[in-house]
Structures are given as structure tokens and as C-alpha cells.
């Protein structure tokens, strides 16, 4: 089978052995589509392994103790290492049945970003709610947060191309425009950018507010001392999807149910930027970093599996 593997020289498409017969509690899945999230590329640096943590496909073999996961069943899965390959072994506990009528493209995006949005919304609630200022508002996660915020006062920031109420941080007066909307300050700033923007974002918080950071899309850096955390009683909190499995079973179940509902009722929130065959990985990675990209880049298997 083909597998897209990280090496010191970059990503390489290699021949690999197909997975063996699945052990108890696991299934072997023929992968039909898998996304490239920016975080996927970051965690691969300096490693030698098959990339990818999310995908969708068809169960080909089922080990004992996998419940209703039988050959032919369509499933989505996350977090499962090695999804940028034609076949992958998936723990049955992380395989989510794909509802009828949901496309492969939607199913491939059904879990990671919606689960991230659920983590962020929970963190906002734990910090006291709105008003919230959100960076990267047109990113895949930002779009989901905006759609699921359930009445939380929200000011959306984008890097460029303002519109739909979003404020561009490229405009000189963006800080004043945000303050005009939030009045006495934001209770929460939800930030996927970081870097040199952090100090400006912290200034938008009310005293006692919380800066929730979940990405590093920006450039530059901000020293902690520049944030005036002590005098203003500010909190800085990191949130990562890598900690999702540490949530309670009840929270994880609720998060997955919400993700499936999004895929069924609002597939337009799970936007695909473009699809590429595994062999086109260089073009796919370049597209991930393209300025102004909307949606998520998918890897598929145009050449057929073997």
C-alpha cells in the first residue's frame, strides 16, 4: 500500500505493508479520505512515521469485540495515527459510524475540528462566557465556533478581507473598532494566531479576563512580562485537541454526538478547500499554507488501493 511518511528530508510517498489481521477491539479500514490539518504538519517535524490523525473509510476486517462494526461499514476516526495511507488499523472505540447520506468529504472532517470547537466552547463557558474576541474567525475551527456559540457575544477578527461583520487586523483602527463593540473589554479572547499579536489581544481583555490560546498561526513572539498578567489578574490558558481523550466519557460522547449532528444537518460548516491524491502531497501541503485558504485540504486515493 501507499503511505505518506515523514522523513528528515520532508514527506515521502512510500510503499508499506498492509495492516495485519486486526487484534481484538480493532478494525482495519480502507481509507477513502483524510485531512491535512496544520497541526498534523507541526507534530511530524523531526519524526519518521506515517502522517495523519483523522480520516474516513470502509471497514475491511473486524477483530473480535468490535460490536456493530462489520466489513462494509463506513466509519470516521480520530485520533488515529497513520491515516495518510491507504489502510489503517483503528480502535473500535475511536471509530464513529458515518450516517447515511454523509459524503466522504464531510465524513473526513467530521471529528477533529468539531471536537476542537467543543473544547473551546467549554473553555469559554468555564471562563465565564462572553463577550468573546476570536482570531482566525474564518478558519475551519473559527467558523464552527461562530456557528455554535449559542448567543455568546462574539467579535470576529480576520487577517484580511473583512466582511460579514468581521474586523481585519490589517486595518490600523482595528483595536478601536473592537473596543467599540465590546465596551468594557472582552471576558475571553480566543486566539489561534499568537506571536506578536498576543500583546494587543491581551489589552482587549477586561481585568480578570482569560486569553485562551489554541494555535500559533502568527509570526514573532510576545514576552509574558508584556501582558501585565499580575496587575490585571489575567489568565492565559492553552487548549489542545490532543487532550480531548482526557475528558470524561460523558463529555466525549456528547462532543461526538454534536459532531455527527453537524455533519448531517450542517455539512456546509465542514468545508473542503481542495482534494489531492497521496502522490500530490507537495501540492497539498503548499495549499495548506496558502494565504486566504478557506476550508481543509483532503488527501484521497485517486490511483486506487492495492
Automatic annotation (TrEMBL):
Highest taxon, organism lineage: Bacteria
- Give yes or no: UniProt keyword Signal: no
**TM region positions:** none
The GO molecular function terms of this record are: NADPH binding; oxidoreductase activity, acting on NAD(P)H
Q: Identify the Pfam families for this entry.
A: ADH_N, ADH_zinc_N
Residue span, Enoyl reductase (ER) domain: 6-299
List keywords of the entry alphabetically.
Answer: NADP, Oxidoreductase
Q: Which PANTHER family match?
A: QUINONE OXIDOREDUCTASE PIG3-RELATED, ZN2+-BINDING DEHYDROGENASE
In its UniProt entry, what is this protein called? Zinc-binding dehydrogenase
Q: Which organism is it from?
A: Streptomyces violaceusniger
